[in-house]
Design goal:
By secondary structure, the protein is an alpha/beta fold. It contains 11 helices and 10 strands. It has a 6-stranded mixed beta sheet with strand order 1-2-3-5-7-10, with helices on both faces. A 4-stranded mixed beta sheet has the order 4-6-8-9. Helix 3 packs across helix 4, helix 4 packs antiparallel against helix 5 and helix 8 runs antiparallel to helix 10.
């Protein structure tokens, strides 16, 4: 049985990591996840993805240490998109929502950080415990100091301590906290809202944000104005760009076609 379950409704894809007992990720699971997210990225009919974990206790604890003990190399081939199929997926220009249904630690927290929006159940908890096993939370070391205050990020990385969802929300690590039994309803509500929006604008936003992450402001703006970002150029020459202007002038809701 596949460790990854998918559910498709219209333009929305729900991806559930369901690998008992704790939803840990080994090489084989990571490769499957990469294929799933690559297909999502490349399917013109899909606009939004939701990523969650099976059960109520674990979102994902990260790397499967039992699989590692059995021979899975930590630096092995994780497949397209890197660990969990998402954090290194190139040109992922569609919104991804992480619905954190429980424990998200180590690579599981890094996986959640790869999403654009994180909503979490009120019993969710988090940690980066790699320090305690003599290794490094590499992706979190890159991303976390850019997402939350530097000194807080460094404390979490250097101590590996656990923190609850309220603290995660306080530092802006999660967008919203909801009751556990309402998590997926809220995720789908948000996904439907995004799916009704302009996909070419989303693509342009995500490419601009990625491109600007390590750039000076003017350098990033120059790449936009000099037509160096493909998604932005596609938007500016699209039917949707014209439709948005027409709908505004006609005082009606726009009909987005993604072209």
């Amino acid at each position: 049985m596949s460790p990854i379950k998918t559910r498709r409704e219209g333009a929305i894809l729900e991806v559930t990591l369901d690998r008992p007992k704790a939803n840990a990720i080994d090489l084989a699971t990571s490769k499957i996840m990469g294929d799933v997210f690559q297909d999502f990225r490349d399917d013109p009919e899909l606009r939004v993805a939701i990523l969650t974990g099976g059960g109520e206790k674990f979102f994902c604890p990260g790397w499967d240490l039992k699989a590692a003990a059995d021979g899975d190399a930590v630096d092995g081939d994780y497949g397209v998109g890197g660990f969990g199929g998402l954090q290194e997926m190139r040109a992922m220009n569609k919104p991804v929502i992480a619905a954190v249904n429980g424990i998200a630690c180590g690579g599981g927290l890094e996986l959640a950080l790869s999403a654009d929006i994180i909503i979490a159940a009120d019993h969710a908890s988090f940690a980066l415990p790699e320090i305690r096993s003599g290794t490094v939370a590499d992706a979190a070391s890159v991303k976390l100091p850019k997402r939350i205050p530097y000194h807080i990020a460094m404390e979490l990385l250097l101590t590996g301590r656990w923190f609850d969802v309220q603290e995660a929300n306080r530092w802006g690590l999660v967008n919203e906290i909801v009751a556990g039994d309402q998590l997926m309803d809220r995720a789908w509500e948000l996904a439907r809202l995004l799916a009704s929006g302009p996909p070419l604008v989303y693509a342009a936003i995500k490419e601009i944000v990625r491109d600007a992450e390590d750039s000076k402001f003017q350098d990033a703006m120059n790449r936009i104005t000099k037509s160096q970002l493909g998604s932005v150029e596609k938007l500016y020459r699209s039917e949707d760009q014209l439709e948005g202007a027409k709908a505004f002038a006609e005082k009606r809701d726009p009909v987005w076609k993604g072209r």
